[in-house]
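User: Could you check the structure of this?
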Amino acid sequence: MGISQITKQNIKDYIRMDYDDDDSDLDIIMLAVKAYIKGYTGLTDEDMNTKDDLSIVYMVLCNELYSQRQYTVDNNKVNVVVKTILDMHSVNLL
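Assistant: Sure, the predicted structure tokens are below.
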């Protein structure tokens, strides 16, 4: 499943958003995560949709931004799986 096939309902289910409140913040989160993945990897929208493993990265990062809605850092650790998958698909390495 490519990122373009992931619906808002898929994300709501994944992050366990079980209420029908205004979810406009979820639209912002989904756009931000997609932009982050594109910026990190250098992939185009079309390229991202051919990498099925980026779907889990997309959902995990949406969950992180949804559940951690504050600007504080408790530790400097990065999710190893997310970083590994993003690194595998990076084409903009310097």
